[in-house]
Structure prediction request, 428 residues.
Amino acid sequence: MSDNSFNPFKMAQSQFDKAADLLQLDQATKDLLRNPLREFHFSIPIRMDDGSHKVFQGFRVQHNDARGPAKGGIRFHPQETIDTVRALSMWMTWKTAVADIPLGGAKGGVICDPHNLSSPEQERICRGWVRQIVKNVGPNSDIPAPDVMTNPQHMLWMLDEFEMITGQKMPGFITGKPVGMGGSLGRTEATGYGVMITVREALKEMNINPENTTASFQGFGNVAQYAIELYQQMGGKVICVSSWGQKDQKSYSFRRKEGVDLKELQSVTDSFGGINKWKAQEFGYEMLPGEAWLEQEVDILVPAALENQITGENAGKINKQVKIIAEGANGPTTPDADIIIKEKNIYNIPDFLANAGGVTCSYFEQVQSNMNYFWTKDEVLGKLDQKMTTAYISVSDFARKNKLYMRDATYVISVDKVAQACHDRGWV
Ligand code: NAD
Prediction:
């Protein structure tokens, strides 16, 4: 396997290089787009509950803002690296472009494990993160949002710190806020629902009724749970989900061939999306190794956990019945795995198209926050469906016409839009 598989940024760059070649971009545009415009590394000193002090490492990377203010989540993760944040910021640029939202791409993170931090300690990290970056973010420059292991409460603490420092109310500074405190209805559902809207459209093109399909998921967090909700409403049957076992520090898959019961599994899942293995077994789920979700005899696979999960080593184990891989997570498939997926003739709905529902709804939240006028949930979800369907169809038409793999088509469309914006501004 190539080194690219293990470094998300190298992987993002190699995906970009391919699109740049297809588009025959000039050298200056390539140099500009294959690296972030700006990145910030900072220390966040925190007083812990026991009176001791600890310093956490924080990041914010603004990959590109030619099409509008940079936008992207903040992750709290013990294994966070600057290269992960760089890759994710680049993917945000392509994602906002393909979803046709007037925003750029950014990402942030803190190396920490919220499992081992009290709520007041997490609040201090949130406030500390804002204090370190306040001059370089804002509603007109860079708008953060939640991501892995961050939630609406974290966003509200960050907003509060930002407003305290700037002395103004600016709810458009950050998205993913609690509903009633500047948050948008529908935001919680948006990413997962968006994934399934793209699957619904893909199945339509394949002339397959969702009611005759089955699916297996990696992850049981925000994205997976809502994707499962909409998929089940469409009539689909989920037979396997996997999640990370915090206590054992390993992942498990939980299978029930007659279909998982979403509410039942949610009742034994912690706030980080970890399924309690004992209780799940009591409910009659078979407990299998972590990677088993990938090997199931299903029509649809939805990786919705982390990056680098479908690799050159395990892609061969994907069952021959699988027709669609819808990437809920960011960067779940390595370039080596893509080769195998193409050979197996599996239809791939790439991450920054499939999971663009989150940023689309974040954009709706920002618009509502700036107007201080909030839409109903039906209005939000209706607009989400429209945006996701349009984005999906434009990519799938382009891929068909140009005989391109979906990932390549998505890249070509989005890189072209961003390159054009950079040219129009006279940057390159
Ligand atoms: P989350 O923290 O709510 O859930 C993550 C889930 O993955 C949990 O169930 C966890 O147990 C599971 N997990 C972690 N490591 C695992 C492993 N090795 N094997 C199996 N399961 C594992 O996160 P989320 O918000 O659902 O995000 C999931 C992915 O989707 C991430 O890649 C994130 O960047 C991406 N994403 C999220 C959003 C959003 O709006 N939440 C938007 C776009 C993309």
